[in-house]
Specification:
The protein contains six helices and eight strands, in the order E-H-E-H-E-H-E-H-E-E-H-E-E-H. It has 182 residues and is an alpha/beta fold. The protein binds flavin mononucleotide.
């Protein structure tokens, strides 16, 4: 059972990345989880590039998605929605239409913010975008508010948030195991 984790912030010291780093410890034994580190290498989506000879970074990304049983997608909020890097990644992943690596892939959405709103708009938009792109976002996406107080020394310091995230990733594992073989 393999979970691929996408982080919607590229910056060093990203809170979203910090939060994603706490998730493997919440998973049942035997479940592998790895963050994908190639999102910055994806070019801007361009249908002219998206043919039989797609860019290597795109091929690698699609292969990583095909090798995963389930997806965690974590996002900060930029101007009331998801960052362009994440939307761009979803756009590449959503093709080829009808045979995309996202088709039927269970996805747990987590939004992360230093603000008290927990990046709610980004969370809602990400659920919508993933669903339109063919993935299967779980109910009860989690928003992590005031993340600078919630993640301390690489661990979740808030029991309620930890329970919500443990429940979410537990459901993701169940959904990944139940997913029909491609
Ligand atoms: C371009 C930009 C737009 C932002 N827009 C919002 C916003 O709409 N809502 C919000 O809560 N925070 C917003 N922020 C603040 C981010 O939530 C904050 O910088 C956060 O730490 C970014 O996530 P990261 O730590 O994972 O990089 C914005 C930050 C940037 C750089």
């Amino acid at each position: 059972m393999k979970i691929l984790m996408l982080v919607g912030s590229l910056r060093t010291g990203s809170w979203t990345g910090e939060l994603v780093g706490t998730l493997p410890a919440l998973l049942p034994a035997g479940v592998e989880a790895a963050a994908y580190d190639g999102l910055a290498d994806l070019p801007h989506y361009d249908q002219d590039l998206d043919g039989d000879d797609a860019p290597a970074a795109v091929v690698a990304f699609r292969e990583a998605l095909r090798g995963a049983d389930a997806l965690v997608v974590a996002t900060p909020e930029y101007n009331g929605s998801i960052p362009g890097v994440l939307k761009n990644a979803v756009d590449w992943a959503s093709r080829p239409r009808g045979a995309s690596p996202l088709d039927g892939l269970p996805a747990a959405v987590v939004s992360v913010s230093p603000s008290p709103r927990g990046a709610q708009w980004a969370r809602e938009d990400l659920v919508k975008v993933l669903r339109v792109a063919g993935a299967v976002p779980l109910e009860d996406a989690v928003g992590v508010a005031t993340v600078h107080e919630t993640v301390v020394d690489g661990r979740i310091a808030d029991a309620e948030v930890e329970t919500a995230l443990r429940t979410l990733v537990g459901r993701l594992v169940d959904a990944g195991r139940e997913r029909p073989a491609a």
